[in-house]
């Protein structure tokens, strides 16, 4: 029935639909028009049923009823088309994703193969260089020993008289100069060999660390057993990579997860407060995963509160760490010398190639 506060007219006879039960006022759910029950062939019994089950039964006027049937038929057809299109899009998306993943795997395999070939060639060159320098050093030492052994000192000084003192002195000086030059050449060769060994050791150390990262400020577990603490660290790393950086890494891609340094009970505060968490070393199965992590660090700004304090770094060699420390000190010195307060000085770049760069501070 129509609300008492509003006068409605029948959509069929245009007469007022009153609030009396005899009018059997009923509203169409499509056009929202009101009708007398008799104008729509709704008898009193049907009217009572509609009132009783108002929420479960839908009623349409004669005009809308025929149109609604067509509309519903069209809607069913449209829904079927939408379902079909969604299914096709789903298959296409899966095919494209499979193609991209396959191509990515192929590219990754080619890059790893190329990197191995370059590394093998580099190792061969280093080995050949080292052997060459060792051989030259041995030849040089043998030649010097041979020349010294073949000097006929008796013939050199035989027949000398008191008048030949100047000649003897000149010969001694000449021999001394020659020995000095030979000694310098030996020292130079030895320094070259030493530098080559250091460089070879540095390259081997870089190769050993290239798939690693180091995480700082990662809370440590207080579990009693090392196995339990390590399991907590692995769980935290996976959450950080998958939830914080949205990368998608499985545990099988983590070759090693371990704390660096001596263990300290985090639950026992010291004189200086709670000890800081030890750095966490993470070693990946491939360089591509490590590279993906380093390229995704910009997501830390929008990561959860649990991860925002984390710091991620390359696993650097001793030489690279020393160079990094020098650059950090340089950045601090430049910041202290800059009285304008308009610039921020930070260290950027890959290990061994780091530089101090300045950014203009943007104030809100």
Q: Return residue spans where pLDDT drops below 50 for at least 5 consecutive residues.
A: 1-5
Total beta strand runs: 10
Number of helices: 7
Query: On the 0-100 scale, what is the average pLDDT?
Result: 81
| CATH architecture assignment of the largest domain | 2-Layer Sandwich
Radius of gyration: 44 Å
Question: Termini, distance in Å?
Answer: 61 Å
Structural class: alpha+beta
- Describe the main β-sheet briefly: 4 strands, antiparallel
Task: Report the top-level CATH class of the largest domain.
Answer: Alpha Beta
Spatial arrangement of strands, main beta sheet: 6-7-5-8
Please explain how this structure is put together:
The protein is of the alpha+beta class and 364 residues long. It folds into four domains: 8-60, Zinc/RING finger domain, C3HC4 (zinc finger) (Herpes Virus-1, 2-Layer Sandwich); 118-207; 210-315, RRM (RNA recognition motif) domain (Alpha-Beta Plaits, 2-Layer Sandwich), CATH 3.30.70.330; 317-364, no CATH class. 54% of the residues lie in helices and 11% in strands. The protein contains seven helices and ten strands. The chain has helices at 44-52, 62-149, 153-157, 165-209, 226-244, 287-295, 318-337; strands spanning 8-9, 16-17, 26-27, 34-35, 212-216, 254-259, 280-284, 311-314, 343-348, 355-360. The strands form four sheets. The protein has a four-stranded antiparallel β-sheet with strand order 6-7-5-8. It has a two-stranded antiparallel ribbon with strand order 1-2. A two-stranded antiparallel sheet has the order 3-4. The protein is elongated. Residues 1-5 have low confidence and may be disordered.
């Amino acid at each position: 029935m129509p609300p008492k506060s509003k006068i409605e007219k029948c959509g069929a006879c245009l007469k007022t639909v009153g609030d009396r039960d005899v009018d059997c006022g009923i509203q169409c759910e499509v056009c929202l028009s009101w009708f007398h029950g008799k104008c729509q062939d709704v008898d009193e019994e049907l009217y009572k049923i509609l009132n009783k089950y108002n929420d479960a039964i839908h009623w349409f006027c004669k005009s809308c009823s025929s149109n609604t049937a067509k509309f519903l038929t069209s809607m069913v057809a449209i829904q079927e088309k939408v379902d079909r299109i969604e299914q096709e899009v789903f298959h296409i998306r899966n095919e494209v994703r499979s193609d991209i993943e396959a191509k990515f795997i192929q590219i990754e395999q080619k890059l790893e193969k190329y990197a191995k070939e370059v590394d093998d060639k580099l190792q061969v060159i280093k080995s050949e260089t080292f052997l060459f320098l060792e051989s030259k050093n041995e030849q040089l030492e043998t030649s010097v020993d041979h020349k010294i052994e073949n000097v006929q000192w008796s013939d050199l000084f035989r027949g000398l008289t008191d008048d030949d003192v100047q000649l003897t002195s000149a010969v001694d000086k000449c021999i001394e100069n020659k020995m000095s030059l030979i000694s310098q050449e030996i020292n130079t060769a030895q320094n070259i060999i030493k530098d080559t060994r250091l460089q070879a050791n540095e390259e081997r150390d870089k190769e050993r660390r290239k798939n690693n990262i180091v995480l700082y400020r990662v809370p440590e577990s207080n579990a009693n057993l090392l196995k339990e603490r390590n399991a907590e660290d692995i769980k935290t790393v996976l959450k950080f990579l998958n939830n914080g950086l949205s990368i998608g890494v499985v545990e099988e891609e983590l070759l090693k997860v371990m704390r660096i340094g001596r263990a300290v009970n985090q639950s026992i505060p010291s004189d200086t407060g709670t000890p800081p968490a030890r750095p966490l070393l993470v070693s990946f199965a491939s360089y591509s995963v490590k590279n993906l992590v380093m390229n995704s660090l910009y997501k830390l700004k929008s990561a959860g509160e649990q991860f925002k304090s984390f710091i991620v770094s390359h696993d650097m060699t001793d030489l690279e760490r020393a160079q990094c420390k020098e650059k950090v000190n340089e950045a601090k010195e430049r910041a202290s010398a800059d009285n304008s307060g308009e610039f921020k000085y930070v260290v950027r770049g890959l290990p061994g190639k780091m530089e101090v760069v300045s950014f203009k501070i943007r104030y809100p």
